[in-house]
Amino acid sequence: MSIRHGLLALLEHGPRYGSQLRSEFESRTGSTWPLNVGQVYTTLSRLERDGLIEQGGEDEAGHALYAITDAGRQELRVWFAQPVDRTSPARDELAIKLAMAVGAPGVDIRNVIQSQRRHTIKAMQDYTRLKAQAITALESGATRERDDVAWLLVLEQLIFQTEAEARWLDHCEARLIRLSATAPQAAAPAAPAAAGQAGPAHVSEPSGAASRPGT
Asked: What gap in Å lies between CA 102 and CA 98, rounded to an integer?
């Protein structure tokens, strides 16, 4: 998530102060990625250091206002024009968890998968319900706010993401089942000899006898 460019996009609409930027960012994204004020002001400091924004006085309440510069606008244009880089994907906690669960002592990876699938499907149902509410509001004309349209797009991305995650979890479980079915079985230990049939220890095995497990 690019907080840096998100704040630049909001500042292009006019000067803002830190708490205002935080509120507008969360409103635009439906609070999917909540920010704290510290994150906002740290990012603003870096943007100012890089010449992409500048302080532009204060509002009536005494809040320090920040305004985008020409360099900031150019940075924003480049960000909108370039595709998001997928060659270095962000760390995914679920993928890491399943990778570490493979062969972990005392961990049933299929239970991990099934538990996550239940959670993922519940999240997908919640997102779908919110999407239906958002569409109803937009189509009825009850709202046409830019933030509501933006929130609908974010919701649809979350739905697609959870759908893909559920399919991937199904795939992981099926993969584990196939690998388990084709894995070589360990040789069973030899059955103990019946009482009275065990020969003297020095007697050699007849020629062509089967070797013991592990020899």
From this structure: 6
